[in-house]
Amino acid sequence: MGKNKLGETDTRAPKEWDKQETKNRLVDILAELDELQNLLYAESKHSLLIVIQGMDAAGKDGLIRNVFGRLNPQGVLVTSFKAPTAVELAHDFLWRIHAHSPAKGYIQIFNRSQYEDILVTRVHKWIDDDTAYKRMKAINRWEHLLKEHNSTHILKFYLHISPDEQRRRLDERIKNPAKQWKYNEDDYKEARLWDDYMEMYEDCFRHCNEAPWTIVPADQNWYKEYIVATTVRDTLKALNMQYPGLKRKGQEQA
Amino acid sequence: MGKNKLGETDTRAPKEWDKQETKNRLVDILAELDELQNLLYAESKHSLLIVIQGMDAAGKDGLIRNVFGRLNPQGVLVTSFKAPTAVELAHDFLWRIHAHSPAKGYIQIFNRSQYEDILVTRVHKWIDDDTAYKRMKAINRWEHLLKEHNSTHILKFYLHISPDEQRRRLDERIKNPAKQWKYNEDDYKEARLWDDYMEMYEDCFRHCNEAPWTIVPADQNWYKEYIVATTVRDTLKALNMQYPGLKRKGQEQA
Q1: Residue-range definition of the domain harbouring residue B122
Q2: What is the predicted ipTM?
Q3: CA A177, chain centre distance (Å)
Q4: Cα torsion for B55, B60, B62, B68, to the nearest 10°?
Q5: Shortest CA gap A89–chain B (Å)
Q6: CB B138 to CB A145 under 8 A?
Q7: Which of A86, B19, B44, B81 is the Cys-Cys partner for B105 at CB 3.0 to 4.6 Å?
C-alpha cells in the first residue's frame, strides 16, 4: 500500500492511463495467464490462493468473471464465503476456510474470506479487540502453514472504491432489472459505516502481512482488471515452472 | 511423562493394582463419562479432541471400542487416519486433519493423527529433520488455534506397550481367525524399527506440548482403559459444565 490511510489512496487509474490501450493489453495478459495456469496445473508443484476483499459493490464478482473466468475451470476454483452457518460457527473460524485451501496445481479464488472475521465482525462489535488480534495472529499462522507446507502462493487484493462510486453502483442495482437480484437493503446500512470499515481494513493491512496485499484502485473496472491480472501473471511467472515431461513408472514419489 | 526415555517407562500397571477391582471401578467411571458427554453435548460450549497414538497392536481399536463405544454415538465421532490419499498429499499435512476437528459439544477421537506425519515419515526418512521440526511447530500452532478459537480441549494418549507384548499380539493375529483381518506383513518390518520409533516418539513428546500427552502403560488392556477413561473423565469434570436450561427466543447469539 502506497499510503497509510485508504482515504488518501487513489480509487482511480492515474490520469495518463488510456482505457482502450489498457484493455488491449489485458487481452494479451489474459492469454499469458491462460498458459501459465496450464503450466501450474501440469507441473503441480505450487498452488495459488487469491483472496478478494472489498466493500459491497466494489466489483468482486465482475473481477472474477472477467479475469479468472477466462481460465480453464478444471484448474480454477472459486469459493464465496457468506455469513457462517450454525455448523461453521461451532468450529474455529478458519475451519471452513482451510477446507477450501488449494491443492497443488490449482488456483483457488476466495470471494470474501477469513478476513471477514476481523472486518464485519469488528465493525459491528460482535468481537472485541483482543479476539480480533488473536484472530489476526491465527490468520498469519494459517497462511504461513499453506506457504511452508504446501508451496501455496497467496495474493490478497483489496478492491478500493470511493464512497461515491459505491453509492452510484448500489443505486444502479435498484434501477437495472439485471442487477436487482444483487440488491440488499442492508447494503445501504453498511455503507453508512464506511469510516469504520476503512479503519478496520487499515488495521488488517498493518497486522496481516504474512502474504502481500495489493490495494487496487477499483472505481474503473478496466483498470482494476488490468492490475489484478498483471499481479497474478507476475507471480506465476516468477515461479519458473517447467512442464514435467514424460513420467515413467517408478519416478513418482509421495 | 514420568521419565525421559520410553524404554525406562513402565508398560504395565503397578504391581499392587488389582485387575478385578480396577475393572469394577471402570464401570462406574464409564457411567460418569456417559453423563458428562451428555452434558458436553447439551451445553455445546466446549469440545474435546482425543488423539490416540501407539505402535502397531498397541490396542488403539480396542480402547476406542471399550471406552468410547459406551458413549452416545450421536455426540462421539471417530476418525481413523490411514496413509494419505493423492488428494490429501496435494494439500498441507494438516488439511485432512483440520476437516475433522470437533464442533462444539462433540467428542472427536483420532485413531492415529497429525503425529504420523512426524513419526512414520521420520523413521523412514521420507522427510528431513528440518521439515519435521517445521511440522511440529505447525502442529503446536494448529492445536493452539482449536483451543483458543473453539474452546477445544485436547488430550493425547500414547499407548505404551513393550516389544515383547507387541510380538505376542502380532503372532496372535496370525493364529486367531477373528484377528487375521488385522494381519499385515509390513507390521513385522515396522517392528524391527522399534528403537527408531521410540526415539521419534520421545522427540515428539519433547516438542509438541501445546496439549498434554499421557503415556499409558498398555500391556494390560484393563489398566490402559482405566487410565484413559479416568483422564477423560477428570478433564470433562474440570469444565464445570451446566445444563443450559430453557432456551427462549432472542436469547441465542452467534
Answers
A1: 18-162+188-237
A2: 0.91
A3: 27
A4: 170
A5: 7
A6: yes
A7: B44
